[in-house]
Amino acid sequence: FTDEEFLGQVLGPKNVGLRVLIPITCMYLILFISGVLGNLAVCFVIVKNKSMHTPTNYYLFSLSISDLLILILGLPNDLTIYWQQYPWLFGEVLCKGRSFVSEMTSYSSVLTIVAFSSERYLAICHPIYSHTMSGFKRTLRILCIIWTISFLFAIPFALFTKVNYIDRPFHSGNYINDSAFCALLDSNVYPKVGQYSLNPSHNNSFSRRVIPFMKSLLFCSLYILWGP
User: Fold this and answer.
1) Which residue range or ranges hold the G-protein coupled receptors family 1 profile domain (predicted)?
2) Where are the alpha helices (DSSP H) in the chain?
3) Whole-Å CA distances, 192 to 176, 195, 198, 205, 228
4) Which residues contact 75 (CB under 8 A, 6 or more apart)?
5) Model-level pTM greater than 0.70?
6) Which of 18, 47, 161, 190 has its Cα between 20 and 30 A from that of 132?
7) Residue 155 has pLDDT above 90, yes or no
């Protein structure tokens, strides 16, 4: 094996091919433009209209901010990985930042939805109790706690995510420069994956064709469900 063939067996192809890349790129562009414009519109309407300054809309505003962060800071990065999965070209800082933003926005979105759902439950099932507890300051405190928790819990992912390299032979310390990839990964995992994939009896071409589509399908599903 040459280094390129070796990396192809261990890490897979550098990209998924133009026949797949072009539709994925078009889809991501549509998601990016519609998502950014839609969430900006939500934020603008809530900020500019005092009648929209309600606890419920504060939660929606928080969700829109979270969506904007992942759309602007995360989606373009994901698209570049489809075009070139390795080597990673953006350095250690952006590698860690990518992981941090992804985790923080995920936590903030989930926790905001939980808080909002709890508020709606109290308002419907216990209206008197909900009325005594409702208020802008309380909602703002909850949102501050949510973003603080999201920030703190995302830090470990940023600390342990790094630019990894594949060595050849495994555990030899002879790293291949073109093998750089950004991941939260134990150093012993990829050699085992590589040894498995280099075995012809374990080489499943079907999974190699299907896996690249799974992330896009998941992203589209979440966008449709939670989009503005």
Assistant:
1) 38-228
2) 3-11, 18-48, 55-69, 75-83, 91-125, 127-133, 136-160, 189-197, 205-226
3) 17, 5, 10, 18, 43
4) 28, 31, 32, 35, 219
5) yes
6) 47
7) yes
CA atoms of 75 and 56, how far apart (whole Å): 27
Nearest CA among 155, 3, 147 for reference residue 69: 147
The domain in which residue 168 lies consists of: 3-226
pLDDT digits (tens, 9 = 90+) for 19-54: 888 988 999 999 999 999 999 999 999 999 888 888
Give Rg (Cα) of the chain: 22
What count of other Cβ atoms lies within 10 Å of the Cβ of residue 155?
Answer: 13
pLDDT at 34: 92
Number of domains in the chain: 1
Instruction: Please tell me the distance from the alpha carbon of residue 100 to that of residue 166, in angstroms, as a whole number.
Output: 23
Side chain identity at 151, as an amino acid letter? F
Q: What is the pLDDT of residue 30?
A: 92
Phi-psi sector, 135: left (phi>0), alpha (psi -120 to 50), beta: left
